[in-house]
Design goal:
9 strands; globular
């Protein structure tokens, strides 16, 4: 890891709106950590200890049901802050976080964050804007799972991933960041259902796929499947 996380902070939505001086203040208090695949960072219901900044690897945010099943709410990829919501309301972690592959993170304790937040309004403003972006993403996730058919969920996720990679136009390719099993957990369905939906998109000429390399042949038709065209 580098000695200072400033260069990573600039890439994270949670901190990117901060001035260079404010970034330095935050960076001075962040502690580098490495975690192996499978490490639990925090569990739903635990008291908040601080916020993480993921700079390499992946972290799954998930909820467990009473019968032991898991639903992955989101898979965090670099560079992204993790577990920031409880920093503000004083509550516990609303979901669990698990390292999905060997990862590098920085940790900012709750006490350090609160001191920075209270003394530097610029940091508070940037954080509030990021929470707004997070809320919009959560609304989209809830809508996708509760209102859409399986093919529509897969289409919606592909549109989101295409947009995130800058490849949301006809004939442009990108690599799927998730396996079919991971997609199924994100979409609250089975891997077989995801595979069938992808096969349907290919047979209709909406999508071309070679392994995890995907080409959206018609953005308009993919959007039509979700009802957002």
């Amino acid at each position: 890891m580098s000695q200072s996380p400033v260069r990573h902070l600039r890439d994270a939505s949670f901190f990117r709106d901060l001035s260079p001086a404010a970034l330095e203040l935050v960076a001075e208090r962040m502690v580098p950590r490495r975690f192996p695949r499978g490490k639990i960072l925090f569990r739903s219901g635990e008291a908040c200890r601080g916020v993480y900044l993921l700079v390499e690897g992946k972290v799954e945010i998930y909820r467990s049901t009473s019968d032991g099943r898991e639903h992955v709410i989101h898979v965090e990829t670099p560079v992204q802050s993790i577990a920031e919501l409880p920093l503000f309301d004083g509550g516990s972690y609303p979901a669990s976080g698990r390292v999905a592959e060997d990862s590098e993170l920085y940790f900012l304790s709750l006490d350090d964050f609160q001191r920075l937040y209270q003394k530097h309004p610029e940091i508070a403003d940037a954080v509030i804007r990021n929470l707004g972006r997070r809320l919009r993403h959560l609304v989209t996730t809830v809508e996708r799972i509760s209102l859409m058919s399986i093919p529509a969920r897969v289409a919606s996720l592909l549109l989101e991933q295409g947009q995130e990679t800058g490849a949301l136009k006809d004939g442009t390719s990108f690599l799927l960041p998730h396996t079919q099993r991971q997609m199924a957990r994100l979409l609250a369905t089975t891997r077989e259902s995801v595979a069938r939906a992808l096969g349907e998109l290919r047979s209709q000429g909406i999508l071309r796929q070679e392994g995890r390399a995907v080409t959206i042949l018609s953005v308009a038709r993919l959007e039509a499947m979700t009802g957002t065209d």
